[in-house]
Write a structure and sequence with these properties.
The chain is mainly α. It contains 16 helices and no strands. It is a multi-pass membrane protein.
């Protein structure tokens, strides 16, 4: 906000990016480790709702910048406030019970479990933690080289693939092009168009909150990607149609909003939720870091090449390819995603790790 040169702005953006990068890794891990099993999915989706609310608030405040060229500084001052509140609030949060067990603080872990999950869960959970550690033989932090070994390699590849598919299914391309689509129907304000998109995203996230622990992660991912594919093909039809301009514009708007809504139901929140669930206590941080690194690289590539590809091939073929990737993503989720709903992280580990499963017999 205080920057007076491009270098200062870039430095500020770099520091903000570091903070966002750390948070995108740690927040899903922390939620998955402290949440009661029956509410883990809903709490993960609640994180997405918070993100959507933040985006909507930012977009609403940003509309004023269209008439005031200096408003961006005020926006950045406002944006710094939640960071201070979060930093202060984190001083009053508890450590993850799984991390406490990992470092040998069993008494503290029992207290945290009792406070978060209820006293009736303490004995069962501690026994479950100890059982997995005893069978695994170690609970120390895994090295990066261990991700090359099974079953960690499989989970890391699934995590990376989920984010590759998520990004190449075209969410950033649709978000970028949606403002132009809204302009075609008379909504000239880019901020107002983005606000419509943000509200649609929020509505989908609220629905995900109610569905993720009822119908499971796999079904939500499959349904989300199928809906995204159908919406994308509707959008392609609207863009390509030359018979009725008004109908074409309406279909384009409808396809864009349905795509974003379907993304917010599953592909958005569930991708970040299921990866820490499939990882074990030793590798969770590294697998999540690897997966989100893939996410940011793919996001950068889409942003870098999207307009160039649109100029070369046209919007419709690019969007059709996004629809094809969405269909491929649904197939991937059907065959490679293990359902984690209603199972503790230790139960999930026991089911997917053949070494532990064999020892546990």
């Amino acid at each position: 906000a205080q920057a007076h040169s491009l270098d200062e702005i870039l430095l500020g953006r770099f520091l903000v990016g570091l903070g966002i990068g750390v948070n995108t890794v740690l927040v899903p891990i922390y939620i998955s480790e402290i949440a009661p099993t029956r509410y883990r999915g809903s709490l993960g989706a609640l994180c997405q709702i918070g993100t959507c609310l933040g985006i909507i608030t930012s977009l609403s405040l940003g509309i004023a910048s269209e008439s005031d060229p200096h408003w961006w500084r005020t926006l950045l001052y406002i944006a710094s406030a939640p960071g201070f509140v979060l930093a202060l609030g984190m001083q009053f949060t508890v450590d993850s019970p799984r991390w406490l067990c990992k470092v040998g603080r069993w008494d503290d872990a029992e207290n945290v479990i009792g406070n978060l999950w209820g006293e009736v869960e303490v004995e069962k959970s501690i026994e479950e933690f100890k059982s997995v550690i005893n069978i695994r033989g170690s609970d120390s932090e895994a090295s990066w080289l261990e991700l090359l070994k099974e079953p960690h390699r499989r989970v890391a590849l699934i995590g990376g693939a989920l984010f590759v598919l998520q990004q190449f299914a075209g969410i950033n391309g649709v978000l970028y092009f949606s403002s132009l689509t809204f302009k075609d129907v008379g909504i000239e304000s880019g901020g107002l168009a983005s606000l419509f998109v943000g509200l649609t995203n929020f509505a989908g996230a609220v629905l995900a909150l109610n569905l993720v622990d009822k119908h499971g992660r796999q079904k939500l991912l499959i349904g989300s990607y199928l809906g995204m594919a159908a919406s994308m093909f509707l959008l392609v039809y609207g863009i390509s149609s030359r018979f009725d301009e008004q109908l074409s514009q309406s279909l384009s708007i409808l396809g864009s909003l349905l795509y974003i809504f379907n993304f917010a139901i599953g592909a958005g929140p569930v991708t970040g939720l299921v990866i820490p669930e499939l990882s074990n206590n030793r590798t969770r941080g590294k697998i999540m870091s690897f997966s989100l690194s893939v996410h940011w690289v793919c996001s950068f590539m889409v942003g870098l090449f999207f307009l160039e590809l649109v100029d070369r091939f046209g919007v419709a073929p690019i969007y059709a390819s996004f629809g094809g990737v969405s269909l491929l993503s649904a197939v991937f989720a059907n065959y490679f995603i293990v359902e984690t709903r209603g199972r503790s992280l230790e139960e999930i580990e026991l089911s997917i790790n053949p070494i532990i499963r064999t020892k546990n017999k």
